Amino acid sequence: MKKLNSIFIIDDDPITVFGIKKMLKAITICEDISDYKNGKQAMEGLKERLQHGYPCPEVIFLDINMPIMDGWEFLEELVNIKLPERIIINVITSSIDPIDYKKWNDFRLRCWHYLNFKNKPLYKIEATDLSRVHLAS
Amino acid sequence: MKSTKTLPIPYILKQLPNATALVDNHADLIDASDSWYALFDIDRNEPLNLITFLKDHKDIDKDALQEILSTNANATLTHSTMVDARSNWFESTFTPWFDEQENAIGTIIQTKNITDSVENTVELDRIKTLLKAQSEVAKVGCWEYDLGTEELNWCEVTKNIHQVAPDYVPNVNDAIAFYKQGYSRNRISMLFHKTLEKGAPFHEKLTIITQQGEERWVAAAGKAIRKQGEIVKIFGTFQDIHEQVMTDKKIRESEQLLTTLIDNLPINVFVKDKDSRKILVNKAECDYLETTPDALLGKTDFDLYDKEVAQISRDEDLEVMRSNKSMIGKETINVKRDGKTTNFLTSKIPLLDLNGKAYGLIGMSMDITNMKQKEDQLRNLINVTAIQNKKLINFAHIVSHNLRSHTANFSMLLDFLIRETEEKEKKRIMKMLFHASDNLLDTLENLNEVVDISTNVNLDKKSLNLSENITRMQQNLSAFLEENQVEFENFVPDDLTVLSVPAYLESILLNLVTNAVKYQHPDRTPIIQLRAIKQDSNVLFSVTDNGLGVDLERYGKKIFGMYKTFHNNKDARGLGLYIIKNQIEAMDGNITVSSEVDKGSTFNVCFNEEIE
């Protein structure tokens, strides 16, 4: 089983958060899973980690529709933050609006991090959602 | 008693006043009167043979002459001479000359100069021929009525016009009966008798029915001829003017048709000369300019319109006349002196003379102001529809997204449940499923609320006292307001009313005030200020708080969006502002916000007071 140091779940829906956590248990061992209700809280958490030199998340599950700071706004800020490692960001949404897919693609092209696009409902988290290293090798 | 002296015969002969000559049986001249010698201008002393002499004359039957003289017959001959290119006509009468024993001893010849008479005859014939020709060509006939004999004479042309046979003999009654019954017959009868009694001349255009039943227009004229003051005859002319009248009538009819057409066209028609002066205008043009044709003729656009508009029109005129090319269907705007603006669809067509040079133009303008207005209305409607459509699509996305997220949760949880073996975990998942179900019901309720506003087209707006409604809201919220120690500063005039759906006004007040309290600043007692002012056709109502404020630069676009919350507030549904915005817009009003973070916010609601 793949071992991960840190995972962020950013979603205002507690059921989705519950689901992701449950699915993660099946595929990985991670001691440090943090969940946030919106982008702002997550950004604050991330900055705190950077400030104190705590490990940054290797994988982020990011919802788009959230109050106060949505997923896109979070990504926009993340692009401008200097991070030691590339993060795998799984954008998760129930939206089937093509505009959201296009936005994701725009971010994918200009973002240093790895971006995946996943539509709800989720049933399983794949290995590729958590790691790129294996793919490359 | 006086004795008579007998003169010798030859001397008597010499003095005879009529030209007389005596010849013997050989036609040798024995003697003649002085008048005879003078007639032919010959010398008395020269011997002369008549046959030889007359042989030189023209137009004489020489054989007859020989015969007459040799047989001493009674006869008359005419002959002529040419003197200085003028014909002299003579008539000679031959009578045998007897002696006492009744022996024919020669012939007595009496000669008359008949030149004048012959010339008169020729002239008369010529004039008659001319008159006949003239009357035939001009179709002018004549007639004559003799009061004495009561005879009526028609010339050939008059008969032709009546279409009667050449030997037809008319009388006054029949002649009058030819005229068409009614006006024509009554009129001619009256005129004829007036001429008969008083000698008044007449000239009238009337219709007759010819012998062959054709109806034709004629010009009949009559004039009395007097002899020693008494009317003895009536002479008149009679002319067929049918074609002329018909042509005139046709021209008048075409003219009438054209005038009727031009005048009744719902298009302004005008003809301008080279200097853009109007030389013809129709009724529509006169109506548009609220004047008469006489007042418009000779006027230019500069006399009628705003200077700028007139100059544009004049430039168009010049271009049309210069290029000889029509200007078709151009949209123009006319501004009258009184400032009234009209949209026209104008065409200008050059009027060309025989050399192909423009000497003016025909203009046609159709008033399309109404169409233009309709077009604008339609465009507005399209804009409104486009906005509505955008709203609908937006709403559809919200619906699909919200429903999808809940169903996705159901799907995921059910998937977990099926594979879960542990009882405790199963219960946990079941609890989650109930939670998801409640969420879905909530969402459906919210959406229903929004749909209600959007679909409620027949809004029952009432004039409501704003102050009373504020008081009622305060009473309803009294517990909540007291708990939060809210201070109200109400500046709304007591008598101010707004036009609103009662339920919507309640919702607007409730949402704005609860929002102001919910997002209060933790360090301050909430103060809410209410203001309202009546403007032209609106009432501007504002709610100002001293709360957290919203970062409008960041959230400005989303503040009235559905499911948008900007503070970590447990009660925030992200629905209140979305709903009241929909309610306000459904009543043709609008809502705006101004805010500063940590200072507070002001929501401005504009109620539309116009009654549709």
From TrEMBL, chain A:
<dbReference type="InterPro" id="IPR011006">
    <property type="entry name" value="CheY-like_superfamily"/>
</dbReference>
<keyword id="KW-0597">Phosphoprotein</keyword>
<dbReference type="Pfam" id="PF00072">
    <property type="entry name" value="Response_reg"/>
</dbReference>
<dbReference type="InterPro" id="IPR052893">
    <property type="entry name" value="TCS_response_regulator"/>
</dbReference>
<feature type="domain" description="Response regulatory">
    <location>
        <begin position="6"/>
        <end position="135"/>
    </location>
</feature>
<feature type="modified residue" description="4-aspartylphosphate">
    <location>
        <position position="63"/>
    </location>
</feature>
<dbReference type="InterPro" id="IPR001789">
    <property type="entry name" value="Sig_transdc_resp-reg_receiver"/>
</dbReference>
<protein>
    <submittedName>
        <fullName>Response regulator</fullName>
    </submittedName>
</protein>
TrEMBL record, chain B:
<dbReference type="InterPro" id="IPR035965">
    <property type="entry name" value="PAS-like_dom_sf"/>
</dbReference>
<dbReference type="InterPro" id="IPR005467">
    <property type="entry name" value="His_kinase_dom"/>
</dbReference>
<feature type="domain" description="PAS">
    <location>
        <begin position="254"/>
        <end position="323"/>
    </location>
</feature>
<dbReference type="Pfam" id="PF02518">
    <property type="entry name" value="HATPase_c"/>
</dbReference>
<keyword id="KW-0418">Kinase</keyword>
<dbReference type="InterPro" id="IPR052162">
    <property type="entry name" value="Sensor_kinase/Photoreceptor"/>
</dbReference>
<dbReference type="Pfam" id="PF13426">
    <property type="entry name" value="PAS_9"/>
</dbReference>
<keyword id="KW-0808">Transferase</keyword>
<dbReference type="InterPro" id="IPR000700">
    <property type="entry name" value="PAS-assoc_C"/>
</dbReference>
<dbReference type="Pfam" id="PF08448">
    <property type="entry name" value="PAS_4"/>
</dbReference>
<dbReference type="InterPro" id="IPR004358">
    <property type="entry name" value="Sig_transdc_His_kin-like_C"/>
</dbReference>
<dbReference type="InterPro" id="IPR000014">
    <property type="entry name" value="PAS"/>
</dbReference>
<protein>
    <recommendedName>
        <fullName>histidine kinase</fullName>
        <ecNumber>2.7.13.3</ecNumber>
    </recommendedName>
</protein>
<dbReference type="InterPro" id="IPR036890">
    <property type="entry name" value="HATPase_C_sf"/>
</dbReference>
<dbReference type="InterPro" id="IPR013656">
    <property type="entry name" value="PAS_4"/>
</dbReference>
<feature type="domain" description="Histidine kinase">
    <location>
        <begin position="398"/>
        <end position="611"/>
    </location>
</feature>
<feature type="domain" description="PAC">
    <location>
        <begin position="328"/>
        <end position="380"/>
    </location>
</feature>
<dbReference type="InterPro" id="IPR003594">
    <property type="entry name" value="HATPase_dom"/>
</dbReference>
<keyword id="KW-0597">Phosphoprotein</keyword>
<feature type="domain" description="PAC">
    <location>
        <begin position="202"/>
        <end position="253"/>
    </location>
</feature>
<dbReference type="InterPro" id="IPR001610">
    <property type="entry name" value="PAC"/>
</dbReference>
